Amino acid sequence: MPFENRNVLVTGGAGFVGSALVRRLLREKARVTVLDDLFTGRRENLPESGLEFVHGSVCDPAAVEPLIARSETVFHCAARNIVVSTRNPREDYETNIGGTLNVLLAARAHGNVRVLYTSSTSVYGNPRYLPINEDDRLSLLTPYSVSKLAGENYSMAFFESYGLPTTAVRYSNIFGPGQDPSNPYCGVVAKFVESLFAGKPPAIHGDGNQSRDFTFIDDAVEATLLAATSDRAVGEVFNVGTGVETRVNELAEILIRLTGASVRPTHTDRRDVDNIRRRVVNIEKTRRTLRWVPEVTLEEGLRRTVEWQRAEAARPRP
Ligand SMILES: NC(=O)c1ccc[n+]([C@@H]2O[C@H](COP(=O)([O-])OP(=O)(O)OC[C@H]3O[C@@H](n4cnc5c(N)ncnc54)[C@H](O)[C@@H]3O)[C@@H](O)[C@H]2O)c1
């Protein structure tokens, strides 16, 4: 990967995806700076040394501009999540739209900065057809999907209007080691594993027949790095998923087996946010253009996640 000695900024780099990207970029010998307001991210998610950490917000142009001025690539991962966005759309708007505009404006002013925008498959809402292609009809059911799409649209418009090399990846339910179960907004996998370790049944919203396309973190990171470096990716949007549809009931069963817990899942009310019935994405475009395939099966990814969460739970905390 061509990141050796490259100056890279990761916004939201103390979060789940951002910190995994940072660790990988450091292995590639990039010079990494992180900008994060520690809203959900934690400094402890990152190595203590070998990178520059700036505590600040993407909403603040004065924080963003000097960092972008010395970057060659920006991974823009800072975002308010779907739960916070649904509760407080203005906060979502300020970070997810305003913060993205700050990043793009600074990149345009500086010139010659490659921008990788991390979007979400939530822009598809309840799809008409499965698996979902990038150019299928979008359906924006939450303030979060509105803001994530706005960030994507701005990214594409900055390419078309100003020639800024931008690419967007639409992530589908990323899970894996590093997803902190103490973060109240973490994904379903981390939550289920935490319950099972506590001897409690995983609480499934609704009948559990809702499905998602669960993507292992290392595969998502690899796709993201390729999207930020491939010439053919500029001005393009890519699904990052697996093409495999998994019902939440199946997910719970696998995790019960892997943790060895002797509980049965319980069913609670339907979730009040992100209430999508079925989601699985088509990854052909990503596969062909970026020459990428997800390598970690759901079972293997869950096994690694359970192991990591077990080790974390046993680790003495300061
Ligand atoms: N994890 C997933 O399954 C998933 C799915 C779709 C899209 N995404 C996107 O991927 C990106 C990373 O998500 P994640 O799962 O790592 O979430 P996360 O909450 O772990 O990480 C987001 C990071 O952004 C930081 N942040 C929030 N507001 C900020 C601000 N105003 N200024 C600076 N930093 C700020 C947070 O502190 C956190 O470290 C986001 O853009 C998200 O929309 C993630």
TrEMBL record:
InterPro entries: Epimerase_deHydtase, NAD(P)-bd_dom_sf. Residues 8-241 form the NAD-dependent epimerase/dehydratase domain. It comes from the Bacteria. Belongs to the NAD(P)-dependent epimerase/dehydratase family. PANTHER family: DTDP-D-GLUCOSE 4,6-DEHYDRATASE-RELATED (PTHR43000). This is NAD-dependent epimerase/dehydratase family protein.
